[in-house]
């Protein structure tokens, strides 16, 4: 130690001690002018400096104040109030010390303290309550605040609960001139739902704050385990939903999650039968005993889609519809269900929204399936019917006759079809119970037997999976019939070993399986009729109950229950995660170079799907001096602008005893030009913070322990330096590597073929030419990219076709082998050998007349581009070098042919070909004389009538030519008949023919026909009556007279038919008298004119409508008292005046009755209420042009 002896001979220790010596062996001392004492420590071989200058204070300062022993400065802010107190401060140095007294008094505000006890458990619906936040100063009020007003608010200093969840209640107190502000105190308030008699579910939020961190995709799905616990009745599932159900980057921060939970009662089935699954995973069940269709959603929720629950036959929507005894079920491509109704002998259709309609009726329904075109197929025990989407019904296979016969369509026979299935190809599988067979029916209705049963009778349901494996459900077993294999018991125990047990394979038990369906994953779903359950069977034979069950099984059944709701505050955090790895680090050090902590944030990396603004911090900071062999924990923290954090920790140790650092690199010494070479640096006894690769002393590559390059040149030198991050340590340099780079010589190859169009089977030789001095090349010939040929510069082949592509790959087999592929040669078109041939054809197909011009045409096949033709008649050359030859000088029996010469063919089997022979046949001239006669030879008719004349020929052949004439002018067409409606009296008609007999041109002219045509007579008729203005009284006689343009005379006869209202009356006379007409009767007369040339034989006259005035008798009193006598105001004569109006007024002029027509007599009421007795006044307008009738009418009661 170092001791000081003052002038007063006082000894004191200024440095070191016996307990904690600072010196090993202090020897020499020296003092400088600044007051520093220097001491020589001999054993430590060090010179140490001791500061002999500083300050002391005699007592502790008030709280909040600090004394600096180096400078003597007092600083800080007092936190307590103290009275004035004297403090002695002494300054000292190597020359002595000096003291002074300082008086310090702290004055300030009186502090306040809030006491805030935790809350008891609170429930939604609790009354407002005092939070019991108490301060040491009651003069200033304590203010409360809630962080989540959806859970609680502050009302008049009390807490008012508004919802379920949790919130932070903060108590604060402001200060004034005497008191300082109190530190805020907070407590968490949890609010649970009030117990509900209708709900057995309780939602308890997790203790806050609840943090929901987003995953590495920037999303998180809300699940119950993350936000709350839900409890309810034991052994009963709970359905929970969340709103929102998920969060993403846009949701970062404070959010609320609404949790809704409910717990249902068990779902029950009563004899389920038909079952079918749709593409979305919903399962539909025909619940026979409950007369409804139920649906099981993928989440297990069971709902009623349609059906009232009572038997019936009503179409409608949902529960408004009713069913009878339901059976099999199928589904179409639109999601519409089809179910058979045994009681109603019908097929019912159920839309996805539950709307039920009757699709077909009057059918003895059984199994049902639909094909890809939505055609319905339904079994009727001994047949299968097809019903198109528009309802057209026909027999598809079998007919109303039992039997066992494979055939097509209606010729096949079945015996009690119990179930149907259909595969993806449209083949139908029928479970033929009566014949113990499975029958397969193709889309063309071809029926075949694919399986005969010996193990059991196939009574139940059938289905087929996507692979063609057939499954049959029967009583308490499901059998599988693998495609092409034998039937095996898939699940279920021994036959008739009924029960209700889930399990695997034979361990499972069923009781009367009535329906079966298959989902896209190959799972079977079966209706367990007597167990009232729906069972699932996986492809591995694992059986579970998904709904219903005689033991009250409720697995997955969620169909009702009173919901409980809670709103829970959460904090959504972004998906920030550090991806850098930081193993513990040991940094070599030595005593001459203090080691400082590197900046590890420079190489830090992190992922954040919600933000690109990531910052890294390090603690302790880079540059912090490390003590030797003392590990320091370093924390790297990443933060983003959304307040998310991520941290990693590792240890860093400075080691003074580390061996000398070194660096070695390795890599290839020899390589080919352009090859990617990788060099690896391996440091020893040093932690590299920076790698610097060099090529020929020039920096290259990245800060990485490996360096890859493909640009090195021959004799380049690669090396590497590493920096440790410590400024006082020199870089570590690796060994140098000198690299030998061999050049690449790429072949340049071109190929050519010696013949691009060889004859079929002739060889083609390809030759490869190299032009850059390649030594020892290797050749690989290719046709269409497939290797062929030999390692040779030539390639010979005889099998190429036009689309083949030939190439050659040449490899330079030097130390740096390279390859190149030649140009492509394609279009080698082998020309097939052909044989020339020629065929000639005459323009005449039969015998000809002498002198007829005949043209022969030659058709050459494989004649080449420069062919010649030599025509011959009877072996003598004729005609010219042309493919056509014409002549009109042939004799009967001449033989014509042609010789073809191919003068330019390359691949031909012969140069000449001779055509077929054509023999000429000449017919001698005809000696027959033709004749023609037309009928009739005279017409007696009317102007404008259509007249027909017919020509009859002899010796004129089968198709002579006709030319009709009228008065010597051509008319008509070239036919044996002439029709005209424009002929007049005196016209002359003739016909000239030309014979069609072979080799004849003879003609003939017919007789002359004449005609007489009279003009048409047109009659007319009009009638008049003796009544003035056609108005009469009832029973008044009236006479009608018909006047015609023509009367009976000569050949003209006129008959009369009178009519009243279109009914025949009267005699055949131009006069008609009657006294029985009634009002508005219509009288008319029809005349029938007969004779020659009468136009419009039947004509109707003008109609006359008669007006018959009927006297109107009006009674002035009636008695509507209900005695059945005179209860209404009857005016029968008004029936003749259907358009009349009746208005009745009371004595005040108020209308009490109005009617148009009087079909129903007035009963003395107005708006259904009886009018009082008295006199009323009527106005009756008969609408006959006369003055209305009026007067009084009296009601007596």
Automatic annotation (TrEMBL):
InterPro entries referenced in this protein's UniProt entry, alphabetically:
6-blade_b-propeller_TolB-like, Ig-like_dom, Ig-like_fold, NHL_repeat, T9SS_type_B
Q: Which residue ranges contain the repeat NHL?
A: 268-299, 498-540
- Listed Gene3D superfamilies: Immunoglobulins, TolB, C-terminal domain
Enzyme class name: transferase
Supply the alphabetized keyword list: Kinase, Repeat, Transferase
Highest taxon of the lineage: Bacteria
GO MF annotation list: protein serine/threonine kinase activity
All residue ranges annotated as the Ig-like domain in the record: 930-1012
Q: What is this protein called?
A: Serine/threonine-protein kinase PknD
Taxonomic lineage from the root: Bacteria, Pseudomonadati, Bacteroidota, Sphingobacteriia, Sphingobacteriales
The catalytic activity of this protein is classed by the Enzyme Commission as: 2.7.11.1
Keyword hit for Kinase: yes
Give the organism, scientific name.
Mucilaginibacter gotjawali
């Amino acid at each position: 130690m170092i001791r000081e002896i003052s002038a007063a001979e006082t000894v004191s220790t200024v440095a070191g001690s016996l307990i904690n010596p600072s010196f090993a062996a202090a020897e020499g001392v020296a003092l400088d002018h600044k007051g520093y004492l220097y001491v020589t420590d001999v054993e430590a071989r060090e010179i140490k400096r001791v500061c002999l200058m500083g300050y002391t204070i005699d007592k502790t300062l008030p709280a909040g104040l600090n004394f600096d022993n180096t400078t003597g400065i007092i600083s800080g802010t007092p936190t307590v109030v103290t009275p004035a107190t004297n403090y002695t401060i002494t300054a000292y140095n190597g020359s002595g010390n000096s003291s002074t007294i300082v008086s310090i008094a702290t004055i300030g505000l009186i502090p306040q303290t809030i006491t805030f006890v935790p809350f008891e458990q609170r429930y939604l619906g609790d009354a407002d309550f005092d939070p019991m936040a108490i301060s040491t100063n009651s003069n200033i009020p304590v203010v409360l605040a809630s962080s989540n007003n959806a859970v609680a608010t502050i009302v008049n200093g009390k807490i008012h609960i508004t919802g379920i969840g949790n919130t932070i209640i903060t108590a604060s107190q402001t200060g004034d001139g005497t008191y300082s502000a109190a530190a805020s105190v907070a407590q968490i308030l949890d609010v649970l739902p009030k117990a509900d008699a209708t709900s057995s579910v309780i939602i308890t939020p997790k203790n806050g704050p609840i943090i929901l961190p987003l995953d590495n995709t920037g999303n998180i799905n809300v699940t119950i385990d993350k936000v709350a616990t839900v409890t309810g009745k034991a052994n009963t599932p709970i359905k929970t939903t969340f709103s929102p159900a998920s969060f993403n980057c846009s949701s970062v921060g404070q959010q609320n999650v609404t949790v809704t939970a409910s717990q249902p009662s068990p779902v029950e089935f009563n004899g389920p039968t038909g079952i079918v699954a749709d593409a979305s995973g919903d399962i539909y069940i025909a619940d026979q005993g409950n007369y409804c269709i139920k649906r099981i959603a993928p989440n297990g929720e069971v709902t009623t889609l349609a059906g009232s629950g009572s038997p019936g036959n009503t179409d409608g929507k949902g529960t408004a519809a009713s069913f009878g005894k339901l059976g099999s079920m199928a589904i179409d491509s639109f999601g519409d269900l089809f179910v058979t109704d045994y009681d109603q002998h019908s097929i019912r259709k159920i839309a996805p929204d539950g709307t039920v309609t009757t699709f077909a009726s009057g059918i003895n329904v059984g199994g049902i399936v639909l094909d890809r075109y939505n055609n319905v197929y339904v079994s009727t025990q001994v047949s299968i019917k097809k019903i198109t989407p528009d309802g057209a019904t026909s027999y598809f296979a079998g007919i109303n006759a039992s039997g066992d016969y494979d055939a097509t369509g209606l010729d096949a026979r079945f015996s009690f079809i119990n179930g149907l299935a259909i595969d993806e190809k449209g083949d139908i599988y029928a479970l033929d119970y009566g014949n113990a067979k499975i029958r397969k029916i193709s889309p063309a209705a071809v029926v075949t037997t694919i399986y005969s049963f010996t193990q059991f009778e196939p009574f139940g349901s059938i289905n087929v999976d996507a692979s063609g494996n057939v499954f049959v459900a029967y009583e308490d077993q499901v059998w599988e019939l693998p495609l092409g294999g034998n039937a095996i018991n898939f699940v279920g125990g021994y036959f008739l070993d009924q029960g209700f047990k889930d399990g695997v394979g034979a361990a499972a038990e069923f009781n009367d399986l009535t329906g079966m369906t298959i989902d896209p994953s190959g799972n079977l779903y079966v209706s367990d009729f007597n167990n009232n359950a729906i069972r699932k069977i996986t492809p591995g034979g694992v059986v579970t109950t998904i709904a219903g069950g005689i033991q009250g099984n409720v697995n997955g059944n969620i169909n009702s229950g009173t919901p409980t709701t809670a709103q829970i505050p959460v904090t959504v955090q972004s998906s920030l995660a550090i991806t850098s790895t930081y193993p513990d680090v040991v940094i070599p050090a030595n005593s001459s170079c203090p080691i400082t902590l590197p900046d590890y944030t420079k190489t830090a990396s992190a992922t954040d799907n919600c933000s690109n603004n990531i910052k890294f911090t390090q603690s302790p900071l880079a540059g912090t001096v490390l003590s030797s062999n003392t590990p320091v924990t370093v924390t790297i923290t990443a933060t983003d602008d959304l307040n998310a954090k991520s941290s990693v920790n590792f240890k860093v140790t400075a080691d003074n005893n580390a061996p000398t650092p070194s660096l070695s690199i390795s890599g290839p010494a020899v390589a080919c030009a352009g090859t990617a070479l990788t060099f690896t640096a391996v440091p020893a006894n040093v932690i590299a913070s920076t790698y610097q690769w060099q090529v020929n002393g020039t920096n290259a590559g990245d800060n990485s322990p490996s360096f890859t390059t493909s640009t090195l040149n021959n004799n380049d030198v690669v090396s590497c330096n590493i920096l440790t991050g410590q400024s006082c340590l020199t870089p570590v340099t690796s060994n140098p590597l000198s690299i030998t780079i061999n050049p690449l010589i790429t072949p340049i190859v071109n190929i050519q073929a010696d013949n691009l169009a060889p004859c079929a089977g002739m060889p083609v030789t390809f030759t490869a030419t190299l032009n850059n001095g390649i030594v020892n090349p290797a050749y690989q010939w290719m046709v269409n990219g497939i290797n062929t040929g030999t390692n040779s510069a030539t390639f010979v082949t005889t099998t190429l076709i036009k689309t083949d592509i030939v190439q050659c790959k040449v490899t330079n087999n030097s130390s740096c082998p390279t390859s190149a592929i030649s140009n492509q040669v394609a279009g080698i078109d082998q020309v097939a050998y052909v044989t020339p041939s020629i065929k000639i054809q005459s323009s005449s197909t039969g015998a000809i007349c002498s002198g007829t011009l005949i043209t022969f045409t030659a058709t050459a096949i494989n004649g080449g581009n420069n062919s010649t033709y030599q025509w011959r008649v009877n072996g003598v050359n004729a005609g010219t070098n042309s493919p056509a030859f014409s002549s009109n000088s042939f004799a009967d029996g001449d033989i014509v042919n042609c010789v073809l010469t191919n003068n330019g063919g390359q691949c031909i089997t012969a140069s000449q070909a001779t055509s077929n022979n054509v023999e000429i046949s000449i017919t001698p001239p005809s000696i027959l004389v033709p004749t023609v006669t037309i009928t009739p030879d005279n017409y007696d008719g009317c102007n404008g009538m259509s007249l027909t004349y017919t020509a009859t020929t002899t010796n004129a052949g089968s198709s002579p030519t006709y030319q009709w004439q009228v008065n010597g002018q051509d008319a008509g067409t070239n036919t044996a008949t002439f029709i005209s409606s424009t002929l007049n009296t005196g016209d002359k008609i003739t016909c000239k023919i030309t014979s069609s007999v072979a080799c004849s041109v003879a003609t003939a002219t017919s007789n002359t026909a004449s005609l007489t045509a009279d003009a048409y007579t047109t009659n007319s008729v009009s009638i008049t009556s003796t009544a003035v203005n056609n108005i009469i009284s009832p029973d008044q006689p009236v006479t009608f007279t018909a006047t015609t343009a023509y009367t009976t005379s000569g050949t003209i006869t006129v008959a009369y038919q009178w009519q009243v209202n279109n009914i025949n009356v009267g005699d055949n006379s131009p006069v008609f008298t009657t006294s029985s007409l009634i009002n508005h009767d219509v009288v008319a007369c029809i005349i029938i004119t007969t004779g020659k040339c009468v136009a419009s034989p039947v004509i109707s006259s003008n109609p006359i409508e008669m007006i018959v005035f009927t006297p109107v008798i009006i009674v002035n009193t009636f008695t509507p008292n209900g005695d059945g006598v005179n209860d209404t105001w009857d005016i029968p004569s008004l029936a003749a005046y259907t358009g009349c109006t009746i208005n009745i007024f009371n004595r005040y002029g108020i209308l009490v009755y109005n009617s148009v027509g009087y079909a129903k007599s007035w009963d003395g009421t107005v708006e259904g209420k009886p009018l009082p007795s008295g006199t009323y006044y009527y106005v009756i307008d008969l609408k006959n042009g006369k003055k209305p009738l009026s007067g009084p009418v009296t009601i007596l009661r």
